[in-house]
């Protein structure tokens, strides 16, 4: 399984801008590019717990500390990642 140090560089291009957690088209493109990087390695080492920790750390850096808001954002991106991974693995991408 990937650890934090291996996953964070893959996720950084998506998370590096303050708008990463918006509905802006470019942010969706960055998210999808990040997931494609994981797809290239067939998601073999994708670790949902580490993924959530990296998102939590980024939210903290942005000053988003409300535990309910943080969990809602993490849950939203966990669901998105899970759906993409499930689809790709089910369809052998």
Biggest sheet descriptor: none
Helix content: over 70%
How many β strands by DSSP?
0
Any idea what the radius of gyration is?
13 Å
With helices defined by DSSP (H or I, 4 residues minimum), what is the helix count?
A: 4
Mean pLDDT: 90
Low-confidence sequence ranges: none
Separation of the first and last Cα atoms? 20 Å
Structural class, please?
mainly alpha
Topology as a string of helices (H) and strands (E): HHHH
Shape: globular
Share of residues in strands:
under 5%
Secondary structure elements and pairings:
Blueprint lengths: L3 H12 L9 H16 L7 H14 L5 H24 L3
Report on the architecture of this protein.
This protein has 93 residues and is an all-alpha fold. Helix content is 71%, strand content 0%. The chain contains four helices and no strands. The protein has helices spanning 4-15, 25-40, 48-61, 67-90. Helix 3 (48-61) runs antiparallel to helix 4 (67-90). The longest helix is centred in the last third of the chain and has 24 residues, at 67-90. The chain is globular, with a radius of gyration of 13 Å. The model has no long low-confidence stretch (mean pLDDT 90).
């Amino acid at each position: 399984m990937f650890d934090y140090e291996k996953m964070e560089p893959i996720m950084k291009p998506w998370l590096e801008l303050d708008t990463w957690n918006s509905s802006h088209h470019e942010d969706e493109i960055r998210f999808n590019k990040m997931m494609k990087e994981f797809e290239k390695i067939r998601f073999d080492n994708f670790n949902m717990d580490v993924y959530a920790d990296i998102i939590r750390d980024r939210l903290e850096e942005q000053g988003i500390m409300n535990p309910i808001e943080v969990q809602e954002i993490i849950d939203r991106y966990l669901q998105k990642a899970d759906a993409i991974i499930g689809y790709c693995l089910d369809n052998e991408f």
